[in-house]
Amino acid sequence: MAITMTSAAANHVNRYLESRGQGTGIRLGVRTSGCSGMAYVLEFVDAVQDEDQVFEAEGVKIVIDPKSLLYLDGTELDFVKEGLNEGFKFNNPNVKNECGCGESFNI
Question: 1, 19, 5, 18: which is closest to 60 by C-alpha?
Answer without folding.
Answer: 5
